[in-house]
Amino acid sequence: MENRITTAISAAIKTLLRPLVRVLLRNGIPYQTFAELAKRVYVDIATEEFGIPGRKQSKSRISVITGLSRKEVLRVKRLLEPSDQGAGERYNRAARVIGGWVRDSMFHDESGHPVDLLFEGGTVCFRQLVNTYSGDAPARAVLDELLRVGAVERTPEGKVRLLERSYIPKTGDVEKIAILGADTSDLLATIDHNICHPDAPFFQRKVCYDNLPDNAIPELKKLARDQSQALLENLDRWMSERDRDVNPRVPGTGRVRAGVGIYYFQEDCSGGNKT
Prior knowledge:
The protein is an all-alpha fold. Among the domains are: 1-82; 85-162, Arc Repressor Mutant, subunit A (Orthogonal Bundle), CATH 1.10.10. It has nine helices and two strands, in the order αααααααββαα. The chain has helices at residues 2-26, 31-49, 59-66, 70-77, 85-103, 126-133, 139-148, 173-196, 217-242, and strands at residues 152-154, 160-162. Strands 1-2 form a two-stranded antiparallel sheet. α2 packs across α3 and α5 packs across α6 (126-133). The chain is globular.
């Protein structure tokens, strides 16, 4: 049984690493850099999640769990933590502002669509939107970020117009790579949960056919985009009403991060790459 699991995991890892290695090579990240990062994650997870209750995790135990030598464990632990906290903060801040703009009727026109906003002044403006949905973040900095990634534009009248109903940067490789880490991690965590807790699984579904004609793809893309966006906006509205960052008076105990992710995939079965 153990050999079957090892074989299955090895095959799964090879499959999931292909698009990741493609991203790494495209951005000039060599194997040795990836190997060092993998060592760091092995040591971190072994330290944080595989200890013996009531006992401090030792380098010897980490060495046994990970297969790294004690000397290597110590070396890895002394490495500086690779991080781009700024990208993550920009992602979360921009997503909250766009989400508020899309769902809050205060920032809509008579047809229920996000209205063009003056930067400041009047009863409804961009600064008010940022103050409501992004805490103490400077409104000018948020606007510059949204302009930079192509999520908004300036109108000839000097107003701010929303171009995207969700935070998917049109430009800015750093932001897209930050999304790669965050969203892929969430999907893998869901799969891991479902393997470990088959009696209480998280929702995880997909639909796929492998012999669609080329002329069906544009319609499928539009159908998937429109229906998925509508679902996500409904879920966003429901969750925002219960999130204590948005509504501090919401009752309840504990603090849980939860959400739903949807993605589209496509592959040329005659010999192309996934897009």
